Automatic annotation (TrEMBL):
UniProt-listed PANTHER family: ENGB-TYPE G DOMAIN-CONTAINING PROTEIN, MSS1/TRME-RELATED GTP-BINDING PROTEIN
Record-level GO BP terms: division septum assembly
Protein name from the UniProt record: Probable GTP-binding protein EngB
Gene: engB
Lineage, top ranks: Bacteria, Pseudomonadati, Pseudomonadota, Gammaproteobacteria, Alteromonadales
Family: Belongs to the TRAFAC class TrmE-Era-EngA-EngB-Septin-like GTPase superfamily. EngB GTPase family.
Residue ranges annotated for the EngB-type G domain, each copy included: 23-197
Cofactor: Mg(2+)
One MF annotation (Gene Ontology) recorded for this entry: GTP binding
Keyword Plastid: no
């Protein structure tokens, strides 16, 4: 049992503009389609089907809100960069995402999930720059770390940590696997900080 196991599905919003209740603290999970956002949320919550995962990229179309307790939320954002999405829709989504980062007062942390084999694609970088500009701390999570052997994993982490310096902001890089839970304690530690859980913990 951890704080995050109590996550419960709350609502789905069709658009960031339709998210209600800008009170308390929320942390959003963002990343390219198929990066492992929904899987990471399920791993964090120790629930198999809290967020729906899929082998088909673009599965999460809605913004799903999970409540930890009143005024504490985790947000599963739809993935970006999915090739089959029409360009007009992509533009609309990017604009909405930018607005969300700028205007959402309760957003206190952004987890940007990227496949460890392909970190910091253009859209990931755009997102991180926006977050830094909006003074929102970022955890860049290099997902599917189980796909690489230890040596290669470490090399990718170091390369990504080096690359993250270019954002000149509060950007931390960590590796993570939903398959073997590598990096889960570090993810929880970062979230605990964002949710102001330093004192209450353990
Ligand atoms: N090997 C491995 N595969 C993973 C891991 N996490 C997710 N996957 C796989 O990656 C695929 C996509 O995972 P999702 O969690 O649905 O990805 P998502 O980012 O939510 O995707 P969208 O909702 O489409 O944006 C699924 O087939 C998962 O089983 C991981 O840690 N290791
Ligand atoms: Mg998803």
């Amino acid at each position: 049992m951890t704080y995050y196991t109590q996550a419960k599905f709350s609502t789905s919003a069709p658009d960031i503009r339709h998210l209600e209740g800008d009170e308390g603290i929320e942390v959003a999970f963002a990343g390219r389609s198929n990066a492992g956002k929904s899987s990471a949320l399920n791993t964090l919550a120790r629930q198999k089907n809290l967020a729906r995962t899929s082998k088909t990229p673009g599965r999460t179309q809605l913004i799903n809100v999970f409540e930890l307790e009143e005024g504490r939320r985790l947000i599963d954002l739809p993935g970006y960069g999915f090739a089959q999405v029409p360009i007009a829709m992509k533009k609309k989504w990017q604009q909405a995402l930018g607005e969300y980062l700028q205007k959402r007062k309760s957003l206190k942390g952004l987890v940007v999930l990227m496949d460890i084999r392909h970190p910091f694609k253009d859209l990931d970088q755009d997102l991180i720059y926006w977050a830094v500009e909006a003074n929102i701390p970022v955890l860049a999570l290099l997902t599917k770390s189980d796909k690489l052997k230890a040596g290669k994993r470490k090399a990718q982490l170091m390369m990504a940590q080096e690359a993250a310096l270019a954002f000149m902001g509060d950007v931390t890089v960590q590796t993570f696997s939903s398959h073997n839970r590598q990096g889960l304690p570090e993810l929880e530690q970062m979230l605990d900080g964002w949710f102001h859980r330093h004192e209450e913990k353990k």
